Amino acid sequence: MLAAVLHDFNDFRLEEVPTPEPGPGQVRVRIVDCGFCQTDYKAIVGLRRNVTFPLIPGHEPSGVIDKLGPGVVGDFQVGDAVICQPSGYCGQCEYCRAGLTHYCKYAYTTGGDGPDDVRPGAFAEYMVTGQECLFHKPANLSFEAAALTEPLSGAWKGVVQKSEIRVGEDVVVIGTGGIGLLCMMVAKAAGAGHLVAIDASEYARQNALKIGGATKVIDALAPDVKEQVYREMPAGPDLVIEAAGPIAAVKTMVDLRRRGTRWNVFGITTHEKFELDGGQTHFLEGRMDASFGTTPLAMQQAIRLMERNLVDPAKIVSHRFALKDIHEAVKAMGERNRNKVMIHVTEL
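The chain above was modelled as a monomer; its predicted structure follows.
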């Protein structure tokens, strides 16, 4: 099969590799579409170093079941259109039994990041994964939208499950790239009142208005960010989501708090420090949350949002490339004015 294989940082090759065979409890999926995540890009160009070579990246796929391994049970059959969760889990450890499968002691990921066990991903014509990672694709969803279930599920998990957004609440989202836009779309669907987007990019701010449903956008580099937020929501934000990544965004989030503000450290994954005033934090009586990864519950909820036309994640796709043009896709990932890059692998 054709696959994009990372042999070393900045050594990314299109090549023919053996088509994988599913083992017990596994399925082989013929990949149709796969989202290109920033973590994939960071691995390819060497910004993320926790990589074991060779690696086939790509962890946001949709496709069709091509072959069942021994012992696959339930209602999955060859020919079924499916969505793949990248993070596999054992189902038996104490974390899995508590529903925290993203904490699983024996977790693996297909083409992604996090666990030590990283398996070949979906920048390839076929991928093998565990049966527990599959979800049926609703008929009214395109394969492209379905491929964005995992990032949408992360947005749902952060905004709804962890930060418990309520109807009518005023929300600030800092960072309106792909994941920030998805957080905004989830917040809008959940009934956000004022929805303020903060980003340093004019391109991103315009997308926040057109795609995310922002009621106001603010330049992150403006000297009066807090004042602008409080002019829009005089009582201050009920919820602040940091979906940007840089430590400056976290510091902005901390500065925006008023009494009772809930805030979610969602986007930053680097080991950087920020300070909190202990007394102020005590008397503000706010609540800090964080969210990483996904779970079967979050995946299922994301599918419901899409199936019921409450959120259309395909709106965030700005660039589309065939697998054979993967190197052009890498270049697009390095551009400033882009949102989600999608890799189209197979025509059905």
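The chain has two domains: 2-147+312-344, 153-290.
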